[in-house]
Amino acid sequence: MEQQAQLKDGRVALVNYGKDYGKLVVIVDVLDQNRALINAPDMVRSQMNFKRLSLIDIKIDINRVPRKKSLIEAMEKADVKNKWENSSWGKKLIVQKRRAALNDFDRFKLMLAKIKKGGLIRQELAKLKKENAA
Amino acid sequence: MAPKAATGRTSRNPDLIRGVGKFSRSKMYHKRGLWAIKAKNGGVFPKHDPKPAAAETPAKPPKFYPADDVKKPLVNKRKHKPTKLRASITPGTVFILLAGRFMGKRVVFLKQLTSGLLLVTGPFKVNGVPLRRVNQSYVIATSTKVDISGVDLGKFDDQYFEKEAEKKKKKGEGEFFEAEKEEKKVLPDDKKDDQKTVDAQLIKSIEAVLDLKTYLSARFSLKSGMKPHELVF
To answer: So what's the ipTM on this one?
Structure first.
């Protein structure tokens, strides 16, 4: 079993419940057994229960409770945004968002594309079957 | 009475309080110059003969008097405002029809008629929906738009869609059943031509967009896993 993300100051987390659902935040301090102080570039520093957070594999290098400015600098240095968007979890979320925003016309075009793809696959499969049978 | 002042008819007697003027009757007499009018007319107020009343045609006594007093309905001068369109509905929007014969069909919106109903067309060649009126409530407006700038919609209004006034026929006993069978409503040729002209321009704009024609010819339906409250149309 690979090591799980360690809970420390500087750990990046994903908010999974509530008003800030889906945002990436940084844990800047641990308040007690249940709560953390979190901060993000587009958010006021606030407390949040760990139950509302899902820890992510990304960590940034900060002191305990940094200023907003140094937090943003540290996030840029660690390149949190790109690391997240290139991780498999991050990519899945992006796809989910894209799917949810599809238009009725887009969904129709998607269906046509799926049918076409399936047709091509079946053609190739039929070819391979014929070759094998021969 | 004497003709009123044409422009800026103000009172020369300002109100001190509602109902109490600043000047007395005699003061106002002088202010209005009524003494001058009298003097001009030789000491009396000028008299205007009443206008000759239009000769009244002697009204015929009514044939029928109702037995009881019939109450007249109250006068209602309210004018309806044109139905407010949802912000998502603009000319050229693709709609999904939700009820009726063409349930689930995707159609193109043309314009709103004075009755508030929406004028819509398939186009007919694409999905079989003719020029038709539809209520806003039975429609989902998608965010897909078609360019309808070249279409002339001036001649379509609610009158165009009125039912033809049926001619009264004398029905004999035996003829009754035969007459029922023969009556089949055929759409007049000029309406078919109207459909063709509107659709000709529309189909050009539709074919300009990839897959739009197949989109319009397909019906919409909810499939497994689709949650209408979460779908973006």
So the answer is: 0.75
Q: Which of A112, A111, A106, A95 is nearest to B143 (CA)?
A: A106
Architecture of domain B93-162+189-222: Roll (2.30)
Provide CB contacts within 8 A for A5, sequence distance 6+: A11, A55, A56, A57, A59
B5: pLDDT strictly greater than 60: no
Chain A residue numbers touching B233 (CB-CB < 8 A): 103-104
* C-alpha span between A49 and A101 (Å, rounded): 30
Residue with tokens 């991050």: A90
Domain ranges of chain B: 93-162+189-222
Asked if B126 and B181 count as a contact pair (C-beta separation under 8 A), the reply is no
Q: How many helices (H) and strands (E) does chain B have?
A: 6, 7
| Alpha-carbon span B91 to B111, nearest angstrom | 6
* Whether pLDDT at B233 is above 50: yes
The token pair at A119 is 């047709």
Using the Cβ of B186 and the Cβ atoms of chain A, whether some distance falls under 8 Å is answered with no
Q: What are B57-68's pLDDT values in tens digits?
A: 777 887 888 788
pLDDT of B172 higher than 70: no
Q: How many beta-carbon contacts under 8 Å exist across A and B?
A: 34
E strand spans, B61-172: 93-97, 106-112, 118-121, 132-134, 139-145
Mean pLDDT of B105-128: 92
| DSSP assigned state of A65 | S
